[in-house]
Amino acid sequence: MPLIVQKYGGTSVGDAEQIKRVAERVVATQAAGNKVCVVVSAMGHTTDALVELASQISAVPDSREMDMLLTAGERISMALLSMAINELGGRAISFTGSQAGIVTDTSHGRAKIIEVKADRVREALAEDRIAIVAGFQGVSTAFDVTTLGRGGSDASAVALAAALDADACEIWTDVEGVFTADPQVVPEARKLHAVSYEEMLEMAAGGAGVLMLRSVEYARNYGVKLHVRSTFTGAEGTWITEEDERMEQAIISGIAHDVSEAKVTVKGVPDHPGVASRVFRPLADEGVNIDMIVQNVSDDGKTDISFTLPKADLPRALPVLEQIRGNIGAEEIRTDDEIAKVSLVGAGMKSHPGVAADMFDALAGANINIEIISTSSIRVSCVIRAFEVERAVKVIHDRFQLSTEVIFRESHPETLTPKLKVVRAEDDR
Amino acid sequence: MPLIVQKYGGTSVGDAEQIKRVAERVVATQAAGNKVCVVVSAMGHTTDALVELASQISAVPDSREMDMLLTAGERISMALLSMAINELGGRAISFTGSQAGIVTDTSHGRAKIIEVKADRVREALAEDRIAIVAGFQGVSTAFDVTTLGRGGSDASAVALAAALDADACEIWTDVEGVFTADPQVVPEARKLHAVSYEEMLEMAAGGAGVLMLRSVEYARNYGVKLHVRSTFTGAEGTWITEEDERMEQAIISGIAHDVSEAKVTVKGVPDHPGVASRVFRPLADEGVNIDMIVQNVSDDGKTDISFTLPKADLPRALPVLEQIRGNIGAEEIRTDDEIAKVSLVGAGMKSHPGVAADMFDALAGANINIEIISTSSIRVSCVIRAFEVERAVKVIHDRFQLSTEVIFRESHPETLTPKLKVVRAEDDR
């Protein structure tokens, strides 16, 4: 019998009525001949409310206690979902992260899953029960309650799907799937039937909110088939799997954009070996996530190094940068938080030169200045002014005709097949 | 170094401000030279809100899932209290019932504590940390989360105090202690310095809400000294311990009253051996708690049996009673839920006849009819009409001069020493 892991995010279980609808879906999935394991996030605004309570008590709450606090959220939603399923005549049983055997390291607030034992989940499924598991949480090797940080519930679902050798991991959310661009920016953006793990990884890194990078990475490493679909329509969504014949036809999958980053430029850096390391090692030690890095061509023995990082990391990065400036004898540190990043992603672009040029051309045609360029084999990203980002996404979407599914013909590489892009999704807890 | 277990009820941790005040008290207790283990209930109305959510989903929620749901409440309060203590420079660590090693049977919703391992609590205390433990909850022998039912947090505190061999178990609550009568009924009621376990047991059985019977019983069995005191004033409250020289002087400790029971009369019961068993065995099997039982003198081979039970148990009891009526050939079942029970309690009354007569006399003087009488060696209880209960408590309180502390003189047994009575306390979770 097929085994499906279903994950429902916070907006899917926002109140009692929504929980009842999720219960109906779960019961229907079982009735269709599947074993079902459900991973559930905390209800809608529960987490925000708990964080607010903590902030009333402490400016910097102890991270172990914060995890203890926040994990109350899934406890509530999973118990209610179990009740709702039982009410429909189903046989559900809920498990905390600890009971489900989700063992993590001891990094409170952003724990990593080390092992998934899932013995009790397996037993429950063997008894034809529906296993409801708390997302976002685990138990550390020191027997403390941990949370998995952003995208944690997806990570729980993927890890469980891998451990249970599930046939699919369905991510039920408040968007219909992965689109060629954010439909709120490009109304004619098209929902994609399937994308590869690699493309999804680049999309996630590019700012697509529907799935966090870590979950996609985990899914790829363990070969878990992901299916992103909408709780509200129930329609087929987007599959994220190994490349298949369908995907191989695509050059461009879609456009991601991101306005959550800031740009830092270290000006007048002496241009000699080891300088980059002396800039980025201290930032890494401080836990600052660096995204793009660009170093300009050296000019009279001095150079400029620019990089992007999450705006949220700026307060931690700035004192470190000031120290670095003194240490390496740089002239100036400039920060700029009014930037945006636009990324064009497609597995086929590695065998099709000219994609980047087309993208630059589209931006030039709209008179949008490019400040930083960075590429991988299946992605081109440009940093531009934040206020121009929506226009940039639109002109690139148009240029590559992403709103119509075009069958790629090898002899006419100029005919580009559009594929994925992602919209911002609900809570990514 | 003395070890104190402090229990704070839901009204003591109703919001962030109250939690901060509790944190100050806990830190001060440690600073005064004690090791401190704190047992905490869910915040104010958290439990009600969770119960309401469950009721929106299921009329009869699964009891295992209900326990999973409700235990989110203490998780929130204990994490917040730990944060608040840390914020004050204290070193707190919170433990769930499971982490604290509170092992229960598998009766979800009303689990009984089987064992308290408390290893992690001991370790934390050995490291001079303040251990915060979730009240009301434990882990069953089947590794499921359980709740202890009414008065559960007090039970957690007493059980932990016994396991840790604590010097005292302080029950911090919204009343100042144990009074000679409910101060809301008798404004001149007096707070008692100390009462014995036995007296407190009778008071609790008589309807005093400040402590549940099970906690007092547990405290007596393990010799845990209880101290009931007010979170809001911080003043010395009432000690509940073994009888001491002070208590031995008392004849009357106080008056309890209870309007939560109903009366059932089985009329026209054939008066032959085994009939009582055939009435009460099926009720016990159904889990109905019977309090007082009175059987009238037989009259031409038929008799009436009256008993009291919690009003809440009536819906379960009635179908059983109807069956019983048929089985034993009784004439009629009558139920009456407008009764009240007034109990006079005092360890000294066993050696002083006439106390019961004085009580009946006081009621007669107020023209209050007595419907059922039941006595133990240290208690006299009367069932009366519910609407007369406050008047009854007042006249008895006056008759025994309970508002003034009178030193009992052996040669003048008519001089009665007043002692305890209890007011209804906050959430008894």
Could you describe the 3D structure shown?
Two copies of one chain form a homodimer. Chain A has two domains: 3-248, 3-Layer(aba) Sandwich (Carbamate kinase), CATH 3.40.1160.10; 249-429, VC0802-like (2-Layer Sandwich), CATH 3.30.2130. Helices cover 34% and strands 24% of the residues of chain A. Chain A has 13 helices and 20 strands. In chain A, strands 3-6-2-1-9-11-12-10 form an eight-stranded mixed beta sheet, with helices on both faces. In chain A, strands 5-4-7-8 form a four-stranded mixed beta sheet. In chain A, strands 13-18-20-19 form a four-stranded antiparallel beta sheet, sandwiched between helices. The longest helix of chain A has 16 residues, at 16-31. The first copy, chain A, is globular, with a radius of gyration of 23 Å.
